[in-house]
Every structure is written in C-alpha cells, then in structure tokens.
Amino acid sequence: MAIEYGRNVTFSEFATLVAERGVILSRSRWAYMLNGEGPLVRDSRLLQAIADVFDVSYDYLVNGSETMPDVVAPHEEVLRAARIRRVRDHAIRNLTDIAPGELQRVLQALDDPHRD
Asked: What is the reported pTM?
C-alpha cells in the first residue's frame, strides 16, 4: 500500500479500508496484529478484509503457500528493502547495549542476508 499511496498509510486510513469490508479495527487490535500476539491474530474475517485491501488471497496472506500475487511481485525488492531498513533501525535503537561487535554482526547479516 505504501507503493500505491506513495507513503505509509496511516492507521485511520487503513481502518477505514477495512471497515469498508465490514470489519472494525481498533488501534489495540491492530497492535496485536502487527505484533502477532493475542487471541484475535487468526481472526479470519479480519484477515480476509486485510487480504482484500492488499488484493491478495487469504491463503497467500496467512500461509504464503501460493505463488506471489501479480500485484506484489513487481514491488518485492522495494518492500523487502523497506522491511530490512525498519528492522535495521530497530536493531540500532535497541541493541546498543549488547557485547561489542554483536550489533555490527547483526547489521551485516541484515545488509547481506545471503552471506554464509
């Protein structure tokens, strides 16, 4: 959606898109979904609504068991780079107290995930 909108979509915008599909999404419920915690993370109605918003199948969203949808494939590298950047930023903010050199190894692994 960031590619379609040219920016990250706000919670309010996303909640509206999901509500158009008959599902109410609170901030706390969204936080549970993002963190993968809580009993509602497998709520099939919400997951189907999210799949519809992203124009992917429920099975792809939940299991990743089918081939990458045409809507996702052209943006795979951009999406992967954005995700790595977010994880890298998180590591820099939260791992500064680990043993010397460990943060650097984590960052190198993120920068080159195919390294042996």
From this structure: 0.59
